[in-house]
Design a protein that fits this description.
The chain has 260 residues and is of the alpha/beta class. It contains eight helices and 14 strands. It is globular, with a radius of gyration of 17 Å.
Amino acid sequence: MRPVAELVSADLRGVFSDIDDTLTHNGVVDLEAYTALLRARAAGLRVVLVTGRPAGWAEVLASLWPVDAAIAENGGIAYLKRKGRLERIYFAPGEPADDARRLAAVSDEILRTFSFARRSDDCTLRITDLAFDIGEHQQLPTIEIAAITAKCRELGARTLVSSVHAHAFFHAADKAQMSARVANVLWGDSPSEVAEHYAFVGDSPNDQAAFAFFNASIGVANVARYAADLRPPPRYITPSPNGHGFAEAIEAILASPSRT
């Protein structure tokens, strides 16, 4: 990973960003991170949040924050601002009613099997996935996280792990694919244009697909704890962790020769 100060953007049009431990520290958005979002918007950059958090969070964030859209549940669903209104899109076609029933069965089995398993506090706001708390209100060791995700896969679900949650889902989305779709719907950009002309900022394994997809992939400093497991890791890394690191990423983008 190269220092983010070495970033030379190729006419970047916008930024896609994770939330937990990328904009936040100890669960709270850093002032520097929110200020950086405002600076990015004022400079003409498009901004999209991309999180493993639930649809309910994304609907509020897309409505109230200075962003163009919010992607939730690791790409399963997104809320877009278009023509003054909020529009919801799913990665998979149609309403995910069948997935909800299958996810409920997975949840019941995980909770029966593992005494340490606990559903995330935000599960009631989820539509396309299921999340277990591994680092938000309890800190599970790696072996217990692996046991939960292995059992989910045994039950037919796909899995992703973030800094706070272990996710189970049945759709085929990821953060990169839904980012490309959102950019196409909002601005008509092709996947190759999104990869070349947008940056992504993140910090954990559920950002893996985006780190691989975006040419300007940036990890805030706390991504280093997962570096050995990321294939590939982000191309750039900030000096500081969390929201301070996000602010450094925005500063590097705005200072790039192509924008000055």
